[in-house]
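W.,

You were right to be curious about this one. When I first looked at the sequence I had no strong expectations either way, so I just let the prediction run and decided to look at it fresh. Below is the sequence, 267 residues in total, followed by the output.
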Amino acid sequence: MEYPGRLVLLGNPVSHSLSPTFQNAALRAAKIPLEYEALEVSRSDLRPLLRDLKRVSAAGNVTIPHKFSVYERCDQLTELAARVGAVNTFWFEARRLHGDNTDVGGFDAAARALLGADPSGARVVLLGAGGAAAAILAAVEAWADATVSIVARNATRADALARRFPDVARIETSAKRAVADATLIVNATPVGQREDEQPLDVSMISRSTAVMDLVYARGGTSWIRAARTRGNRAADGLTMLLEQGALSFQRWFGIEPDREAMRRSLQ
């Protein structure tokens, strides 16, 4: 097959990203002669860079803060990317920019692994209404009889999300009330990127509730470690990160990556 001219991650910042580590492990395992590189791109430089990438039929991933900007510039969107309103995976085909959102599938796989069961009927509490929240809602939307309670400081964003996903989402102003009977609590806020921060006191959470943090850190975030100590099933964002990356790899090359090689690269 014809490979992309370049394979890149676009974001700002990107120096902390683990994507180059596991994507390059997948490329080596598949014997694909490409290197995945992280490019730190300012908002003003994004448009000219996309023009340069178009010339070499590049492909890659998009992270904060460019997922919506790339979404707006795509000539063709997958159904999922259109539903979420953001792109995290792109490629050029016949000089047209295509966009997909593999965060949805990444979250779905991570949530199913954590719950260890079919998520039908799950009562999900979503902390935050930022960029990642729509992907979570798009995933849960496909779970039979599942519901999502959105707990967020930004009432305007929360209301907009609830209107976009009316079949599953509702706004809850009380975190304590929301988590009382939750199956799964998902932190989709930046809280937790610093070691001492936790988005919710784990003492409020039933021990039967599963806890997922979209933030990832070696050994788990402070919140995830606290939840595990208390006896909750808990996972940080690493499983989701790996799975969305694997789904991106499939999109670019049409083959399954070696997920075990990807995991080993991070150990």
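Here's what jumped out at me. Residues 107-236 form a domain with the Rossmann fold fold (CATH 3.40.50.720). And, maybe more interesting for your project: Residues 22 and 266 are 7 Å apart (CA to CA).

Coffee later to discuss?

I.
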